[in-house]
Amino acid sequence: MSVLPIVEVPDARLRVLSAPVETVDDDIRRLIADMTDTMYAAKGIGLAAIQVGVAKRVVVIDLQEEEDEDGKPIRDPHAYVNPEVIEASDEVSAYNEGCLSIPEQYAEVTRPSRCRVRWLGEEGGVHEEDLDGLLSTCMQHEIDHCDGILFIDHVSRLKRDMLLKKLAKARKAA
Ligand code: NI
Prior knowledge:
The protein is of the alpha+beta class and 174 residues long. The protein has 3 helices and 7 strands. The chain binds nickel (II) ion. Nickel (II) ion is lined by residues 99-101, 141, 145. Nickel (II) ion (NI) binds next to helix 2.
C-alpha cells in the first residue's frame, strides 16, 4: 500500500468522466488501499480515484467524526465502487466544503440533504443505503469527481474566481 500524489486544479484530469469498474478484483482492491492511505496522509475525509489520476468510478470515505481517548480520530474507512445516487431529497442543506484537489479553499455548497446511493462493495456485492448529514454531502461531492465536477462548479463564478485566485496566491507564497 502506498500514498499517491494528489491531482490538483487546474489539472485537466479532474474534468475527465471516470469509467465504471467492470469487475471488483485485486487491482481495484489495491487501488482502494492506496486511495485510503492517500486520504489519511492528506487528512481528508473522502477521495475519488481520479484525484490520484485513475479514471475509474471508485470512492473512499471516512468521516473520522469520532475520536479515541487521546483525541485521535478513529478510522473506519469505506470503499464505494460505481456509486450512484438513485434518489435525492427535495430538501437541501449547505456545507462549507473543501477538496484535496483545491487545497485549503472552502465554500458553502448547497446539495440535497439526503440521498439513496447504490454501489459495489470491495467484495463485489451490491449495496444500497439512505445517507444523510455529512456522509450524504461527502458522497455527492465524490460522485461529482467521478463525473469531472468540482465543488467550485456549484458556487457563483465570482466566488469560484476568488477561490482560485486565493489558491494561486497561496501557491506562490509557498
Ligand atoms: Ni474533492
